[in-house]
Design goal:
Distance between the termini: 77 Å
Number of helices: 1
Oligomer: single chain
Strand order of the largest sheet: 1-2-7-6
Strand content: 25-35%
CATH topology of the largest domain: Immunoglobulin-like
Length: about 160
């Protein structure tokens, strides 16, 4: 005899109350996106989304890659301040099909901001960035100066 598993939804009884239903839906969406491997938020009107980042370190440089498909390079801004690399941009939604009825829309649109603390000092005047096939690549050459600073503690 086979039995089916049913997902337990503790707030189901509160569904008639719109606030609880919206809260439950938002939490379900949050956990679904978290378990899928990345926190990406989507709203029906657009909103904020978070592109995936990869940060790699070689002997001489840090390499940061961001997945931002469907964007123009001119819509992406990169800044470095106090060891914090920030990538900002906005992916605009363009729909030209006037008579198309969408059944499913999974593309993310809207503004995004990603900031990461760099693990080492870099030469800010030699940073380069390129954008190809929907992937932004930022090359940050490491600083030639001392990587670690030791502070001796006086014992009294």
């Amino acid at each position: 005899m086979a039995r089916e598993l049913t997902i337990w939804k503790p707030f189901r009884e509160l569904a008639p109350f719109r606030e609880f239903e919206r809260m439950r839906t938002d939490m379900d969406r949050f956990w679904d996106s978290f378990l899928e491997g990345g926190l990406r938020t989507r709203t029906e009107e657009g909103g904020e989304w978070l592109p995936s980042l990869d940060v790699a370190e070689t002997k001489n440089e840090l390499v940061v890659k961001a997945e931002v498909p469907g964007m123009d390079a001119k819509d992406i801004n990169i800044s470095l301040s106090d060891g914090m690399l920030t990538v900002k941009g906005e992916k605009k939604q363009e729909r030209e099909e006037k008579e198309a009825d969408y059944h499913l829309v999974e593309s993310s649109y809207g503004a995004f901001t990603r900031s990461i603390q760099l693990p080492t000092e870099v030469q800010s005047d030699k940073i380069s960035a390129s954008y190809r096939n929907g992937v932004l690549t930022v090359i940050l050459p490491k600083s030639d100066g001392p990587q670690k600073k030791e502070i001796k503690v006086k014992v009294e």
